[in-house]
Design brief:
The protein is built from ten helices and twelve strands. With 383 residues, the chain is α+β, with helices and mostly antiparallel strands. It folds into two domains: 83 residues, no CATH class; 277 residues, Endonuclease/exonuclease/phosphatase (Deoxyribonuclease I, Chain A, 4-Layer Sandwich). The strands form two sheets. A six-stranded mixed sheet has the order 3-4-2-1-12-11. Helix 1 runs antiparallel to helix 2 and helix 2 packs across helix 3. The longest helix has 30 residues. The protein is globular and about 80 Å long. The model has no long low-confidence stretch (mean pLDDT 88).
């Protein structure tokens, strides 16, 4: 009887392993499948790191049982390792030297969330105390170039306008900005590039596929450094636009008894539509990037994880500074409104990309508790 029970258990474990392996392989294909072709593929990229580790556990399970069935999870892991390496950096954590190497360019990228405090429930942009926290980090690390997303310009504040402060107090004499007036309040929100180096030319690239409330145009600036011209892009793909309704639905993960099917459908539909837009925006950006007359650095908020179609398309042949010098999973987004989003360790949605012949000297993720995004800091050496 015991032998029969063991046999049934083994069969069930083989079926379970096969099912999980099948889903993992679909997830591993996420970078190569446009969300418009298969609506669920955006969700698969979110699941991938977790399924990879589950299959790894299953591999060891079959290994310890001395079963040839271990080949099933083993082959799936080998087939998935290409996608996995976008999610995980095998470098150990190292301290960041605030003294920049001679000749390197120090680039910061930061979605500052309209300078709203991290725990703030109401949309009250540009808290003066919050602006000071952001500028304190800038003062500490002294980046040469800063790529902002959800940056706010406050013309009515005059000398206190973040633009003016960055220019007059911190030495960022050159900038490129595109912003729209929010709430007709003379507060302009958008993407920005600030540079201590001269800007030869700058420009604005609006997305043709977007929801105007949840996306920002890409801006670029051609930076002159040591006689070389480098193009810098600051990008922000469409946000998911989560509000109190969506955060409430996500919160039910902690208390699934209260789960509402209609609300879950609403959340899934909203995410699906955003993944579709990400695919279209990534295609558009790829064409724009291919036309750059100079080597380019690209930094910003993709609102999508590594191994997604958007990540693979926008990154192209460039290197990911996190994978070069970062550590482990490197999540860049958190939330004070959602238990799930606060605890997920795989939400790396902000990036710094550079050409393959450039070198990442050091990399840092910082600014915890200031914005809902961490800032990224990379020292990059030109060839």
């Amino acid at each position: 009887m015991r032998s029969k029970s063991n046999s049934i258990f083994t069969i069930l474990m083989k079926l379970l392993t096969s099912a999980i392996v099948f889903v993992l392989l679909i997830c591993a294909c996420s970078p190569f499948i446009h969300p418009k072709q298969f609506w669920f593929i955006g969700f698969m990229s979110l699941l991938f790191p977790y399924l990879f580790f589950v299959v790894l556990v299953l591999f060891f399970y079959w290994l310890f049982r001395w079963s040839s069935f271990l080949l099933v999870p083993l082959f799936s892991l080998l087939l998935s390792v290409y996608t996995f390496h976008f999610n995980f950096s095998f470098h150990t954590s190292a301290g960041f030297n605030t003294t920049k190497s001679s000749g390197a360019l120090r680039l910061m990228s930061w979605n500052v969330r309209h300078f709203i405090p991290f725990n703030e429930n109401n949309f009250r942009p540009a808290s003066k105390a919050q602006i000071k926290k952001v500028f304190k980090e800038i003062e500490l690390y002294q980046p040469d170039v800063i790529c902002f997303q959800e940056f706010i310009s406050l013309p009515d504040e005059k000398k206190s306008n973040p633009f003016t402060v960055l220019k007059d107090q911190y030495g960022y004499a050159h900038h490129q900005f595109d912003g729209s007036d929010i709430f007709h309040s003379n507060q302009y929100s958008g993407t920005a590039i600030f540079s201590k180096y001269p800007i030869l030319k700058g420009g604005i690239i609006p997305f043709p596929h977007s929801n105007a409330d949840n996306t920002e145009a890409t801006v670029y600036a051609d930076i002159i450094k040591d006689g070389d011209t480098i193009r810098v892009y600051s990008i922000h793909l469409q946000s998911f636009g989560f509000g109190s309704r969506e955060y409430k639905t996500l919160g039910r993960v902690k208390n699934p008894i209260d789960e509402n099917v209609d609300e879950s459908k609403h959340l899934i539909k909203k995410m699906k539509n955003t993944f579709d837009v990400h695919g279209a925006q990534a295609d558009f950006l790829t064409q724009i990037l291919d036309e750059s007359p100079y080597p380019y650095l690209l930094a910003g908020d993709l609102n999508d994880v590594p191994g997604s179609y958007a990540y693979m398309s926008v990154r192209g042949e460039h290197k990911d500074a996190f994978l070069e010098k970062g550590s482990y999973l490197g999540s860049t987004f958190t939330s004070s409104f959602s238990f799930l989003l606060k605890t997920i360790p795989t939400l790396r949605i902000d990036y710094v990309f550079h050409p393959a012949d450039f070198t990442t000297i050091q990399y840092k993720r910082g600014g915890v508790g200031i914005s809902d995004h961490f800032f990224l800091l990379a020292d990059i050496a030109l060839p």
